[in-house]
Amino acid sequence: MMDSSKFAGIILASQSPRRQKLLEQMGVAFEVIPSELAEMPVMGDRPNVYVARMALEKALKVAHSYPDHLIIGADTIVAWEDRILGKPATGQEAALMLSLLSGCWHDVWTGLCVCCRKQNIQIVKAAHSSVHFRNVTEAEINEYVETGEPMDKAGAYAIQGKGKKFIKEIQGSYHNIVGLPTLELAKIFETVGIAIDTGSVEALS
Catalytic residue among 3, 45, 75, 197, which? Predict the structure, then answer.
């Protein structure tokens, strides 16, 4: 377990069950207070800049009400040829995203922000992984979309769910693709003076 006694507590500004599970596996005691931040326009940002901005905004929104707490904000996107693929709004959009990714490499970026207003802490990172899809047929795409899994996932797939059958190869952190780069987060915890068992984190990755 980790020592976070220098803060009033730790808050994860996300309702993602995947991020919550990874944070629990790191031995972190935390509470969940979603930022409820609306998706922000890309405004021509490169993928790494966009996710970092989103993670920062999410963390700051929660930090405003909890200045004594250490807040963790995160945002994950898929980028195909530098085109940002967010969460699909419709099944048709999900199918289009999956057809773009079929047979190709793409990037997964997770923005990570850790901040505490009272202690003037604000650390923002963007972690990167690459994913190679095998060639996926139209029938496979339609069958997957019908499961409903793609609808709340960046890039319209979940690597830890049914979408793993499309994955041929990954480079970089698996946890980053799931939505929380645990090694990066452990390094940030160390920077702000929180003791954590890095060995257990490395075992997760």
Answer: 75
